[in-house]
C-alpha cells in the first residue's frame, strides 16, 4: 500500500492506495497537529510500503511526521517546490517559497489540462496560473471561507455555510448576522475567483481550463459561472505525477482526475469582464 498525506493548515488528509491495482482503499482526515498516532490518526503502517507527503504545516510537524514514518516505512517521498518540474517552470522569484500544495496542484492540473488555472479553497484560497507551454505565472492568496468568518468575530464562527445551499441563495442579501456574514464571505470568495480568472486570461490572451480543489471547492464551485472541474484529489495528483509508483501512475494516469470542460472563448471572457466593469 501507498500512504499519501496532504497536510494543510487546518486538516491533514490521508489516503491508502493499492500499489498493485492503483485503487484507493481508504481515506480520512484529522485536524493538523504536531504528532501523528499511526493506527488511530492514520492507518497502521504495517501495510504501507511507501509514503508521499505534501505539507504546508509548520516545519516541526513535517519533521516529526517524516521522522516517525522513516522508522517504519522503507520509502518516504517529501514533495518540495522546485524551479522546474514535469514541464512547468515555477514563477516565484524564490521557487522554494511557493506553497508545495500549490505547486502539486499546478503540476497535476497542467498534466491533466495543459495551461490552466488551479484554485485551492482551503484555509487559504490560492489561485495559480500556468500558461500553455508550462510557464507558471505565480498566483494569488486570500483568506479561505473559515478564516474570513473567524476574523470578523461576530459570534458566527460556528455557523458554517451549508455546502448544499444554492449559489443564488448564498449571493442574496443576508437578513440576519449569520446570513450577512456567510453571504458576504461567499460573495468575496466567488467574486475573487471569477474576477482573477477573467483578468489573467484577458492579460495573457488565452482562455484557460479552470480546476478547483480543497475543502470548500464544492460550495465555491456553485458560484463560478465559467466551465470548470472540481478535483478533490488534485494535490495527491501532483504527488502521483512527481513520485509515480504504480503502473497506472507511470503511464501518466492520476486517480480521480475529472473530465475538464473546455474553457469558454476568450472573447466571451473579455465580454464578461467588460460587462462587470460597465464598459
Ligand atoms: N468537514 C469539514 N471539516 C473542516 N473543514 C471543512 C469541512 N468541510 C469543509 N471545510 C472547509 O474546508 C477548509 C479546510 O479545507 P482544506 O482544503 O482541507 O484546507 P487545508 O488544506 O488548508 O487544511 C476549512 O477551512 C473549512 O472552510
Ligand atoms: C498559501 C498557503 C498557506 C495555503 O495553504 P492551505 O490553505 O492549503 O493550508 C500555503 O500554500 C503556504 O503556506 N504557502 C507558502 C506561501 C506562498 O505560497 O507564497
Ligand atoms: K489552500
Automatic annotation (TrEMBL):
<dbReference type="InterPro" id="IPR043129">
    <property type="entry name" value="ATPase_NBD"/>
</dbReference>
<protein>
    <recommendedName>
        <fullName>Type III pantothenate kinase</fullName>
        <ecNumber>2.7.1.33</ecNumber>
    </recommendedName>
</protein>
<dbReference type="GO" id="GO:0015937">
    <property type="term" value="P:coenzyme A biosynthetic process"/>
</dbReference>
<keyword id="KW-0630">Potassium</keyword>
<dbReference type="InterPro" id="IPR004619">
    <property type="entry name" value="Type_III_PanK"/>
</dbReference>
<dbReference type="GO" id="GO:0005737">
    <property type="term" value="C:cytoplasm"/>
</dbReference>
<comment type="subunit">
    <text>Homodimer.</text>
</comment>
<keyword id="KW-0547">Nucleotide-binding</keyword>
<comment type="pathway">
    <text>Cofactor biosynthesis; coenzyme A biosynthesis; CoA from (R)-pantothenate: step 1/5.</text>
</comment>
<dbReference type="GO" id="GO:0046872">
    <property type="term" value="F:metal ion binding"/>
</dbReference>
<keyword id="KW-0479">Metal-binding</keyword>
<feature type="active site" description="Proton acceptor">
    <location>
        <position position="101"/>
    </location>
</feature>
<comment type="similarity">
    <text>Belongs to the type III pantothenate kinase family.</text>
</comment>
<feature type="binding site">
    <location>
        <begin position="6"/>
        <end position="13"/>
    </location>
    <ligand>
        <name>ATP</name>
    </ligand>
</feature>
<keyword id="KW-0808">Transferase</keyword>
<feature type="binding site">
    <location>
        <position position="123"/>
    </location>
    <ligand>
        <name>ATP</name>
    </ligand>
</feature>
<feature type="binding site">
    <location>
        <position position="120"/>
    </location>
    <ligand>
        <name>K(+)</name>
    </ligand>
</feature>
<keyword id="KW-0067">ATP-binding</keyword>
<comment type="function">
    <text>Catalyzes the phosphorylation of pantothenate (Pan), the first step in CoA biosynthesis.</text>
</comment>
<keyword id="KW-0418">Kinase</keyword>
<dbReference type="GO" id="GO:0005524">
    <property type="term" value="F:ATP binding"/>
</dbReference>
<dbReference type="Pfam" id="PF03309">
    <property type="entry name" value="Pan_kinase"/>
</dbReference>
<feature type="binding site">
    <location>
        <position position="92"/>
    </location>
    <ligand>
        <name>substrate</name>
    </ligand>
</feature>
<dbReference type="GO" id="GO:0004594">
    <property type="term" value="F:pantothenate kinase activity"/>
</dbReference>
<feature type="binding site">
    <location>
        <position position="177"/>
    </location>
    <ligand>
        <name>substrate</name>
    </ligand>
</feature>
<keyword id="KW-0963">Cytoplasm</keyword>
<feature type="binding site">
    <location>
        <begin position="99"/>
        <end position="102"/>
    </location>
    <ligand>
        <name>substrate</name>
    </ligand>
</feature>
<keyword id="KW-0173">Coenzyme A biosynthesis</keyword>
Amino acid at each position: 500500500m501507498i500512504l499519501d498525506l496532504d497536510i494543510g493548515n487546518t486538516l491533514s488528509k490521508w489516503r491508502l492506495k493499492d500499489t498493485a491495482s492503483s485503487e484507493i482503499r481508504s481515506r480520512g482526515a484529522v485536524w493538523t497537529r504536531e504528532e501523528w498516532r499511526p493506527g488511530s490518526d492514520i492507518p497502521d503502517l504495517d501495510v504501507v510500503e511507501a509514503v508521499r507527503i505534501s505539507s504546508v504545516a509548520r516545519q516541526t510537524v513535517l519533521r516529526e511526521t517524516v521522522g516517525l514514518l522513516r522508522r517504519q516505512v522503507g520509502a518516504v517521498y517529501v514533495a518540495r517546490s522546485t524551479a522546474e518540474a514535469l514541464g512547468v517552470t515555477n514563477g516565484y522569484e524564490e521557487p522554494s517559497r511557493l506553497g508545495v500544495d500549490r505547486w502539486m496542484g499546478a503540476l497535476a492540473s497542467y498534466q491533466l489540462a495543459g495551461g490552466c488555472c488551479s484554485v485551492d479553497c482551503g484555509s487559504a484560497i490560492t489561485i495559480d496560473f500556468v500558461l500553455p507551454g508550462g510557464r507558471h505565472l505565480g498566483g494569488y492568496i486570500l483568506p479561505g471561507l473559515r478564516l474570513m468568518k473567524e476574523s470578523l468575530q461576530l459570534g458566527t464562527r460556528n455557523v458554517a455555510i451549508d455546502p448544499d445551499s444554492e449559489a443564488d441563495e448564498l449571493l442574496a442579501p443576508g437578513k440576519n448576522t449569520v446570513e450577512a456574514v456567510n453571504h458576504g464571505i461567499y460573495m468575496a470568495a466567488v467574486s475573487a475567483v471569477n474576477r482573477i480568472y477573467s483578468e489573467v486570461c484577458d492579460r495573457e490572451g488565452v482562455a484557460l481550463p479552470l480546476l478547483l480543489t480543497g475543502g470548500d471547492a464544492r460550495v465555491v464551485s456553485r458560484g463560478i459561472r465559467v466551465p470548470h472541474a472540481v478535483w478533490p484529489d488534485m494535490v495527491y495528483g501532483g504527488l502521483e505525477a512527481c513520485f509515480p509508483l504504480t503502473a497506472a501512475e507511470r503511464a501518466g494516469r492520476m486517480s480521480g482526475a475529472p473530465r475538464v470542460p473546455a474553457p469558454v472563448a476568450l472573447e466571451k471572457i473579455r465580454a464578461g469582464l467588460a460587462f462587470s466593469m460597465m464598459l
